[in-house]
Amino acid sequence: MSTDAREKARQLAAKQAKNNTAASSRRWIQLTVLLVVAALVAVFAFVFYQNQNSKIPNSGPVPASANQYGGIVLTKDGIVKNASSEQTRNLEALGTSTVSINPTLNGTPDATAHALPLGMQNAEESAKNGQAVRVTVFQDFNCIHCREFEERYGEEIQKLVEDGTITLEVRNLIFLDRVSPTQYSSRTANAAYAVANQVSTTQYLNFQRELFTYQGKKDLTNQEIADIASKYGADISSDLNENKWRPLVDVLNTESVNNGIAGTPTVFVDGDQYTGSDFSAFLKQKIDAKKK
Asked: Are the C-beta atoms of 164 and 157 separated by less than 8 Å?
């Protein structure tokens, strides 16, 4: 190879190396910019939701779909409406929580718990009330054990509600807001009231089941939650963005803690708390006992 040819080859190699270095630098710059943007988006989201949460008033209305204790009651004939004896609830009237919260407790009774949460008949009263067996579930949409309970028993419970064998009351708590920068538990609890105001028992339970499938995967945005709700016949965007039912969400959570609910899911059937490992058997026993 001639000297000129070798020099041209050297120059070409040098130019290619320079181009490769420049391309590599551009890629690093682009990656850095993307990471910075992602970090800024996360910060802005955190600040936004923190600001939203700080604006929640202490007092607010009780939705048509809830009783005064914040429970959504589902029957074969639909979701019970306008059952609350109070039009509004005020957080300040409840005082300070007296029970420590353990979101992973999975329904184990707390030593300081009251005999029963508010608005619930005891076992003796329930046995004589002539009504369908009542199942009350304290849950959190961001709770892994609640998702597991829904996955294992949700369809069974829904069938029994739809055929009139049981009445289901759902009280959505927000213990796990502490680990969510978007207050996911509060936002989904707010959404549950908005959906229950508009749909049937079956539609609500299907909405709840789908919502639980996202637990542990991501905090859905308000729009994503609203999109899921729309699949089941509810338009809830304004209620979500205005935090319409968040005051009651806060009241329900504090009142539940003050009355001994220390973990989720906590489940009662006709006044007796479920603490075993086979809810189907526990529920069947209660149903059979009421038929006698």
From this structure: no
